Amino acid sequence: MGKSKNITPVTVGLFEDNPIVEFGLSSYFQTMSNFSAKICFASSNPKEFIHLLKANKPDLVILDIISEETFGLELFERVFKLNSSAKVIAYSNVKSRQIIKTLLSMGVAGYIPKKESLSLFDKAFQHVLMENKVYLPENLQDLLELKQEPVTLTEMEKRIIPYLLNGFSSKQIAEEFFITSNAVDFHKKNLFVKFEVNNIASLVKELISQGYSQGISF
């Protein structure tokens, strides 16, 4: 495939912890893609990635959902907090439809499974950059009709989620944050309401299914 002519080169910021994947994407954009695209920076460290994002302001951001340092949606949240209109494509092995729905509701412009051909990036770029549309593979197109509002969490709810996922009791969590057990129970009840569950086991299952993890600090 040859490069499309008369198209301003697209700058890309990449969050990816697999150097082989990074090399493959870079090579594809340079030699095979119909679009003139260049990875202007790449990082596997969340803090470094955000620093580079601020400094470079790429046209497009490609984020993996899982890495050694983060699993979840925290990095996506941070990117959209910096720029609510950012063009973001999730490129991941994550198969959870719930996570993909949540990403769409956050503002992600596309999702590409890593198991698929890199040529899907041409289709995604066409949708996202040229037509200002959301790109999803054929088997996920129905999710465009099922968008839901993302759950909004308070800072304390975000802080206690990792402890809940690791089986801490209300008393243990209270000791970690120097608050009362009743205060922890209050936050847990609010999480039950927000995630539409009625017990801690269901909450943990829902948190995992939506990609929440031990979080990252910026």
What does this structure look like?
It is a single chain. The chain folds into two domains: 136 residues, Rossmann fold, CATH 3.40.50.2300; 55 residues, Orthogonal Bundle (Arc Repressor Mutant, subunit A), CATH 1.10.10. Helices cover 44% and strands 12% of the residues. The chain has nine helices and five strands. Strand 4, helix 4 and strand 5 form a beta-alpha-beta unit. The termini are far apart.
Q: Provide the number of structural domains.
A: 2
Order of helices and strands: EHEHEHEHEHHHHH
> DSSP helix count?
9
Strand order of the largest sheet: 2-1-3-4-5
Task: Give the percentage of residues in beta strands.
Answer: 5-15%
**Strand element count:** 5
Helix share bin: 40-55%
Which CATH-level-2 architecture of the largest domain?
A: 3-Layer(aba) Sandwich
Secondary-structure blueprint:
Blueprint: E1 10-15, H1 19-31, E2 37-43, H2 46-56, E3 60-63, H3 74-82, E4 88-92, H4 97-106, E5 110-113, H5 120-130, H6 155-165, H7 170-177, H8 181-194, H9 200-209
Parallel strand pairs: 1-2, 1-3, 3-4, 4-5
Helix pairs in contact: 2-3, 7-8
